[in-house]
Amino acid sequence: MKSVLYHEYEPNADLTETSDDVKCFLDNIKYSIGSKILLVGNVGNLGKRLRLLGAYVTILEDSHYEDVCYSLIHNENCNVVKGSLEFLPFEDGCFDKVIILDHFNHTNNCEKASSEIYRVLKRHGEVILEDLNLKNLKVKLKYFKHRVFGEQVNFNYPQEIFNIFSELDFDGTLKELHNQRYIYIGKLK
Questions:
Q1: How many CB atoms lie within 10 A of CB 34?
Q2: How far apart are CA 113 and CA 152, in angstroms?
Q3: At what angle do helices 110-120 and 158-166 cross, to 10 degrees?
């Protein structure tokens, strides 16, 4: 179950805004030259792609210092900052977009993480969140395995993610992908 955002994203000029295709859904995310974007999680080479489009990309890396920093290897010309989603080391209102891939459910405190996202976004900024869908049996078993081994994972159902960000004054859209993944896109009012 690879992330749609960083593995399959290709611009599709022939699709319409009303298409049910996920790629069209992603094409509607507007990137402009000079936008400041924060990437969090398993970003693959998305930072490099956004950088080629003219955006300023910062990647939040929370792996251990002794690990190889894959974000640096796959995303040249992007800033990589050490930190955690619950305590973002950035000033208020400094990003136009925050994109979180396969990471939000691995935070210790989703409410704190969402309020930090709210804090670092500019007015009318966007949060784009893609993660595994707890409605899927394989995902539920994976969640159970993490819990049995004592890991801190807080898997949320897609509607719970929608509600968390709605309470913070985000106007959002939720798209479920075959009950395996979901994408939430919310714009700060």
A1: 9
A2: 14
A3: 50
What is each CA distance from 179 to 131, 132, 136, in whole angstroms? 11, 9, 6
- Render each residue's pLDDT in the chain as its tens digit; 189 residues: 444 454 444 433 343 333 344 444 445 556 678 899 999 988 888 888 888 888 899 999 876 545 556 666 777 788 888 889 999 999 999 999 999 988 888 888 889 999 999 999 999 999 999 988 888 888 888 878 877 887 777 778 899 999 999 999 999 999 888 778 899 999 998
- CATH number of the domain residue 150 falls in: 3.40.50.150
Domain residues for the domain of 138 are 4-188
In the chain, the number of structural domains is 1
For the whole model, what pTM was predicted? Answer: 0.81
